[in-house]
Amino acid sequence: MPDFDFDLFVIGAGSGGVRTSRLSASFGARVAVAEDRPLGGTCVNVGCIPKKLLVYASHYAEDFEDAALGYGWTVGERAFDWSSLIEKKNQEIARLNGVYAQLLDAAGVRRIEGRATLEDAHTVRVGDARYTARTILVATGGWPSLPEIPGVEHGITSNECFTLKELPRRVVIVGGGYIAVEFAGIFNGTGSDVVQLYRGAQFLRGFDDDLRTSLCDEMRKKGVELRFNVNVESVEKIDSGVRAILTDGSSLEADQILFATGRAPNTSGLGLQQAGVELGPKGEVVVDEYSRSSVESIYAIGDVTDRIALTPVAIHEAICLADTLFNDNPRSPDHEDVPSAVFSQPAIGTVGLTEAQARQRFERVDVYTSKFRPLKHTLTGRNELTFMKLLVDRATDRVVGVHMLGPDAAEVIQGFGVALKCNATKAQFDATIGIHPTSAEELVTMREPLPEDS
Ligand code: NDP
Questions:
Q1: What is the pLDDT at residue 50?
Q2: Whose CA is nearest to atom 18 of ligand 1?
Q3: What domain range is 285 assigned to?
Q4: Which of 28, 184, 296, 304 is deepest in the core (most CB within 10 A)?
Q5: Cβ–ligand 1 contact at 312 (below 6 Å)
Q6: Distance 159 CA to ligand 1 centre (A)
Q7: Average pLDDT for 327-342
Q8: Separation of alpha carbons 447 and 437, rounded Å
Q9: What CATH number is attached to the domain comprising 359?
Q10: Which residue is closest in CA terms to ligand 1's atom 42?
Q11: What's the pTM?
Q12: Is the pLDDT confidence value at 100 over 60?
């Protein structure tokens, strides 16, 4: 048995890489992790955490209004300072970077700063140093991908949104996925004029159709200009910012144009192909059910594998992998019924199948929906509607999809994720007492399915 420097060498200290490192070390493995950017990866530095902080910041505009409109408050003059928000956010992210370092150190993981590349199935190079490892984990995440159009370099990606020096007064957002709708809400709430362009007929492809149309309605009510079936053909730099030329022949001027056009696995220049690792069409590391690549000693987890690009999924994959490699407990990650949220405004929370998927899979599907004005807005008069939907396989009575659009949707749906994991039936939903007065109680009090031909 050759003598390796480490039992596990992890490339990438994001959510997946850090969890695998710490857990493997706790099982007695000798572990190193290499990272060339701040610790914590996308989630901590340019993703989930700072995004949610910006969502909180942007929602205050409505909160102040609601307080005055419905709840007796006199709200004084309001002003929003983008740079102060970014500074506060930066402080918190720096704190988290430090926490990650401490956690790795406390677990006895060797931290190596720098860009790692593979030399062969057991060798990694970082700068001038070369390390050998019995197993190597590629956990390098993803990176924003840009359309190949003239002038695309004048635009920004979500990465840059987190450090913009000033709040753009006018923003064009290209794309109709998670990041596009989340930033549309952030910029709209903080006072920018937002135009969001999506190339298809309805954004958020892959989500339940009723959720998509309901979010579209609510975003328009809040003042986001949504334009569908249109794309950007080219971008020019002009004195006042940028000009986007659109496929319908029109043009738009803005201070910033944000391309939220997807993320691609971060595999280029890593030496993966040289080491014999098979990559898929998007550049993702192709892995088996135990996250093993085509090379026996090389594994990959998280966004770089293009399975489900969500932090908690990467962490789950990490736990399974550490258990498999170093805890004598081989297990493969479970990618079924993964709850997720979009921190749009209002937010989406969802778990299980969409109606279209449920109808494909089951012969008869009962659909329960509810659309209502939440209690809070009976006093404010705000015309923001909450939407909820349950999908039930009639043959087994199993609830196979739960969808919500509305305040706190992410918090509500987390618990329903447990119910779906337990194969809960509609009868069990009905037997659950609601918590009153909440929006969530609606999900256990829906009694009449929609007529079958509706
Ligand atoms: P998504 O894949 O969700 O969306 C990309 C969007 O860009 C789609 O609407 C797509 O259109 C559009 N698009 C792609 N290529 C082009 C092009 N050439 N021109 C115009 N439009 C284009 O990617 P995101 O970047 O929004 O997010 C990446 C992933 O990160 C998400 O899928 C999610 O897994 C994760 N994420 C999760 C969050 C959360 O949990 N709240 C938040 C943010 C990200 P089309 O639909 O037609 O393909």
A1: 98
A2: 147
A3: 6-143+264-326
A4: 304
A5: no
A6: 14
A7: 98
A8: 18
A9: 3.30.390.30
A10: 178
A11: 0.98
A12: yes
Ligand 1 centre distance from Cα of residue 372 (Å): 29
Our count of domains for the chain comes to 3
pLDDT of residue 250 exceeding 80: yes
Per-residue pLDDT tens over the stretch 169-191: 999 999 999 999 999 999 999 99
Residues 20, 101 within the same domain: yes
DSSP collapsed to 3 states, 1-37: CCCCCEEEEEECCCHHHHHHHHHHHHCCCCEEEEECC
Same domain, 93 and 185: no
Q: Which two tokens stand for residue 226?
A: 């949504």
438 φ/ψ angles, rounded to the nearest 5 degrees: -135, 170
252, 272: one domain: no
H or E element that contains 414:
helix 409-421
CB 448 within 8 A of CB 368: yes
User: Is 276 within the bounds of a domain?
Assistant: yes
pLDDT at 454: 63
Give percent above pLDDT 90 in the chain: 99
Does 454 fall in a domain? no
**CATH code: domain of residue 251:** 3.50.50.60
Task: Say whether both 63 and 167 belong to one domain.
Answer: no
